[in-house]
Amino acid sequence: MKKVKMQLFGSLLLSCDSGNLGEEKLRSNKLTRLLAYLLIHRGSALTHHQLIEVFWEDAGKNPEGALKNMMYRVRNELKALGKEKFICTVPGAYRWNPEIEVETDYEAFEQMVAKLRATVDQQEQETLCRSIIAGYKNNITAKIADESWILPKVIWYQSAYLDAVKQLCTILGPEERWSEVEMICHHALQVDALDEDIHCYLIRSLSGQKKYDLALTQYEKASRLFYENMGIQNPEKLQVVFSQITTETGEQRTDIGKFLEEAGEQIGMQGAFFCDYQIFRQIYQMEMRRINRLGIAEFIILFTLRRKYRIQTGEKIDHGMIEGMNILERVVRASLRMGDVAAKYSPIQVAVLLPICTYEAGVQVADRICNNFRESIGKRRLELLYELAELSPPG
To answer: CA angle, 292 as apex, 286 and 295 as ends, to 5°?
Structure first.
């Protein structure tokens, strides 16, 4: 009985004692797909209707003629393997000749995966993992990989390959065979660049070889990759690996995720940022440079507290005024947005900086604070005045 070997991983290739037939000889994507389909489904007859539905769903008026012509071309190309009748015609259907045995790499791959899942012997597991990794060859040929009828297999094979990579890494890691882990992971990331576990194994392998600079570089590369492609800021497993590296090296650094967590610990505070006047001045100067560069409008409000019905300046700072300023600070915090900045300018004045704001919006903010202040002071004989001005760059 004649035997044909079929390679589906990497590129389609049929070979036997008489010759071989590969993608480069077929010179047609549709021819390659049809031949692969016939071989993958060689256990049954494929009706004309089934083949037309798969390959000529957008065909013109004569899909039967197109199928007949394509089958003629496939048979003609198969002559490179010998004079045998490789494709049989049965009523209303075609099929691969059941008398011609076919040995395939993808079925051998499936059998190895099944054996790996069934065995508990670590040495045998390592051998099978290596065989699965070697046999994968970057999945099924790209000529057919995006076809709907093969896509479930493509996904399954990739998943099985990555599982084998990770299982082999768990075997090699405790034995400190880090250079092997590094090589395996580099290749696996070409298959799936967003597999977090494999990034972690690669970083550990570099660290295990004391290539700490490369390990940190790989960590930074992986973090950037996950953020740019998935919007994930430092996945949890990567952070654990990063902590292990910095512990081993004694390096006093943290990752951006930890920095954001620590820097934002007080972010739960609502309302404006109420700060010391010296800090306010620095923020004010930064905003001046920003509006000069971007050409945007920002406003500042200066609130002045005074006793009601008193016109003269030089207010006496007694307990009532101190209490009033405390109320004003609470009102300002509660009445403004997060991002607005406020500071006590003098014993009876509060300055408020409103980034990205119009004059009209500034008036509304000031009026709202005055109204909220009046509602908060009860019967105290105090009133709040304000001045509103646009920030203008000097010169």
So the answer is: 120
Same domain, 243 and 296: no
- Taking the C-alpha atoms of residue 168 and residue 156, their distance in angstroms, rounded to an integer, is 18
Report whether 332 contacts 350 (CB < 8 A): yes
- Angle 329-332-336 from CA coordinates, rounded to 5°: 155
Tell me the whole-structure pTM to 2 decimals: 0.65
Domain range for 13 is 3-104
Q: Are residues 248 and 128 in the same domain?
A: yes
How many of the other CB atoms lie within 10 Å of CB of 302? Answer: 16
Do β-strands 341-346 and 349-354 pair in parallel, antiparallel, or remain unpaired?
antiparallel
What is the tens place of the pLDDT at every residue in 253-297?
Answer: 555 565 555 555 554 445 677 888 888 888 888 888 777 777 777
**Residue 90 belongs to domain with CATH number:** 1.10.10.10
Phi first, then psi, for residue 79 (nearest 5°) are -65, -20
* Helices and strands (DSSP H and E) totals, the chain: 15, 12
**Would you call 145 helix, strand, or coil by DSSP?**
coil
